[in-house]
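Sequence in, structure out. First:
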Amino acid sequence: METIGGNLREMQRVPLAPAHVDAIRAAGAVVDYPAGAFLVRPGAPADRFTYVESGEIEVVNPYTDERHLPSTLGPTQFMGEIAFLNGGAWSMPMRAVSDTRVVEVAREAMLTLMAQVPEMSDIVITVFSARRRRQLDEHDSSLVLIGEEVDRDIRGIAAFASRNRIPYLSLPLGSPEAATTLTSCAISAPQPAVIFGRDTVISDPTPATVARLLGLSREIADDKVFDVLIVGGGPAGVAAGVYAGAEGLCALVCEDVAIGGQAGTSSRIENYMGFPTGISGADLVWRGEVQAMKFGTRFAMPHRVAALDRLNDASFCATFDDGKQVRARAVVVATGVQYRRLPIDRLAAFEGAGVYYAATEIEARYCKGTEAVIIGGGNSAGQAAMFLSRSAARVRLLVRGASLAASMSSYLSSRLEADPAITIDYGAAVTALHGGDHLEAVTIRDAATGAARRVDTRALFVMVGAAPNTDWLARLVTLDDKGFVVTGVDAGAASPYATSQPGIFAVGDVRAGSVKRVASSVGEGSVVISKVWEYLETGRR
């Protein structure tokens, strides 16, 4: 299956061409670092590109200050990680082994160079992506989570980091490694903790706090006006970000949970053109995010838009749930849909403690040794069943109807029916949840006979019912009776993506009448930018 980047060991000495180096020298400044000096520390802004002229640079363990990796960076190589593209923060400290001379180029100047010299851009992004893949594969980062298995808040951090391709290390509470790490941070008693380097213990472990440390939660200047604000970081929103940046628009993509949206929870997509061996939804959208950042599109998260207002100058002001605001001349709504919260007693109490709405590597770990129960009959539920069958004792898929033919792709339903580790219960529904602090069992009722049975499980996955998140739009645009955004002729507009409010466009699953597939969402997000451009130039929609 395709991944987010190549194998770093295969590209340890990927050189920049002499012309690339000359351009870097012309745009940058020479800086000398004595042996033992730190060039960067975790959390420092990734605001410059560093090319090594002479000397040697090592990655440092943030908890011991010892050399962390056997390989180092030498002449003709460059420092940097993927966070550089979005102006994020460094995840690991870097130190000069010997007296070292480098050329440093400010981020904006380097991004301009990369836009002008695509061959150089290809090399830089390929190496940055490979470095991120190594960190993810080896769980290598200054971000350490202790006690994920016992603390719901820390499980939330793990899910946030995993879905956003943020590397981290998870240590079981009470393990020798956890004790050593806690001691290095001057924490004597064993306790759940979120730590970012030896000097930063996060007292309020929320996704927003971690995002701020990693530079993901962007501070937007009050006087900054974007050409287009893209609300939603799923396939449609990220595709819009790619094409907006490529067309020279100043674009901001904001997302409240994870880049990838609902598609990011798909463990394996096999029917997306160009990936014959399949690709996870998160990796597919992550590639698009990197493309968009290369073209200058900015991403900010976790930011939920709570309100949208039209100003007197015809621009828009979006207010986030934390009270911060951002202005834009046009808005693309790509918020997609979310699974509905089923009317089952105590469901909310077990969310994050046995009830889940995504099936990623994180949730798969919680399924070991237990039966996983999945509610849903669509492709997402089917992909989750196939994925979880590798870790759960067995998987039980609960389908409301009598068949999967109308709701799931044929190739996927055939695999489910042939897999001995998966049981499909048709005409079945969960009616009760059981457990103390964590889910322990569910009651399943057969619709045809009315018979109920109790099934022991510590993992219930809800993947049914598409609900759009559009309450914040209701004052400005026309919605249908289910809350989806009305566009095109039905909204009195010529463009199929224009809403009833000039300057606001809707694409992907949130748009009424759209085809709810990843490929169609990507297509709509790509095409809508031409209409945004036309609106910005002429005012027509």
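Second:
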Amino acid sequence: MAAPKKGRRQSAPGKPGRSLAFILIALVALTGGMFLSGNTTPRLGIDLAGGTSITLQAKNEPGQKNAINPTNMNTAVSIINNRVNGLGVSEAEVQTQGEDNIIVNIPKGTNEKQAREQVGTTAQLYFRPVLTVASGEPTPDPSASSSGKEKDKGDKSTDTPKATDKGDDKASSTPSATNSPSPQGRAVTDGLKADATPTPKASDKDGDKGAAKPTPTPSADPATAALQKKFTALDCTDKAQRGKVGDGIKPSEQTVACGKNNAGQWEKYVLGPAELNGKDVDDAKATINQQSGAWVVNMEFTGGGSKKFSKTTSKLSQQQPPMNQFAIVLDGEVASAPSVNTTLSANAEISGSFTQESAQDLANILSYGALPLTFHEQSVTTVSPALGGEQLHAGLIAGAIGLALVIIYLVVYYRGLSLIAIASLLVSAALTYTLMTLLGPAISFTLNLPAVCGAIVAIGITADSFIVFFERVRDEVREGRTLRPAVERAWPRARRTILVSDFVSFLAAAVLFIVTVGKVQGFAFTLGLTTLLDVVVVFFFTKPLMTLMARKKFFADGHKWSGLDPKRLGAKPPLRRTRRATAPSAGPVDPKEA
């Protein structure tokens, strides 16, 4: 009695209803999550949705030779990629082209404009002391400072309000932490003691006192006559002048620069020699100050940068506005110019009327702004969504043709079994679509043309699994077994083959994803994802559904349209043979009786 029980356990079909319920619940949950997230379509890459392609050309800094080399170019690619993707831009591609060009592809959609602005600012990052600040328009009468009386009058009537406004803006701290008169101010304080109130209050008082004193004019600064003339004539509202203001200036030289204040108005600066550069910054993050609830930027400096920053802030903290400010200069433009009221070292906090976006922008510049080369925009090309739409349309047609050919083959060769295969393909397609849609906002997955190709290739991989299983079942039927035990005996053999085949496909996709970059990774990711889904669908849908269909008379009796007709498969009835009983021999038979 023990042997029959063991045989029944080996061929037991299990509970296919549970597996089908599991796959149905998973599909409903994924679909519900897709609609609840508000994203019902996958994110499209630049080749399908359109976007912007920027070509950057590397230039040697003044006095540099042979700086354009593979090492510096690869470093620049890595930094630009971090800067763009630090803004949450999905599928931004940064890669070299030739010896001195970098191509940046930014897909249309989230943060595209913000990313374009930061990609264009690719020069090295410098920290320079502020010597003079004034309104961004040209100064009408540069000789107004020739006499002391005219100078004092000019300071009170024109220069002082603008310089004081800037000084007040930069000298003030976070509103909740200080008594600053300006709600738009920015100040830099010790990041480890950001919550201490005595220092900010003292800085506000100093800033108020300093605002009442005459602010140094360009003629009073230790600048050359040529620099003073350049400062006087500079018009920061002119984009062409802003683009050339820092050309040919070495870090060790004084310079003029433009920048926007917190009100969005252009102002111009006279800046001293660079005290630090972007390589001295170890990290920068935009966070919310726990005391004030306002957005701030926390900076951490390297060991050498801490010493330089401490020395610089020690000198600046003894100056009056605006000469107690240091400018964060990127690509010749002042990104921010906070004031300093105390000596700082390894950690510093820039506070003021930051929004989340402006704080993240400044932190991103501080973190990823130090490039080994200077880059200029060589070309900016907009990729039309119409072209991508045509490519997507062509890809979908190719996929539909491939799917149609697979279905025709299944119907002609497997007949009724093709219904199980088609249902499995539909479930696999639904799971693939929902996962691609959900992975967009989750991990910034975007669907590009190579990814579409990967999905098309997956149709063949999935169909191959069905064919392996169906052929194993047919082999069992040919050996004379009925359908229900044939399904259970065929499954272990087919399962091994399917797992080995899918493992090889997934391994190839994983290797391709690791060793490649750019769009090819989209192909590898999609291929790997669909390969995993093939295992899930075959185990939790195809096999349980086949077990249920084997109980139906249409399939169990081997109908000629079921695809399991024993005669068509070459099985010779009877399916189970019995040995005929023979009478035992009683001895020699008499020939006469025979």
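Remark: Residues 31 and 220 are 69 Å apart (CA to CA).
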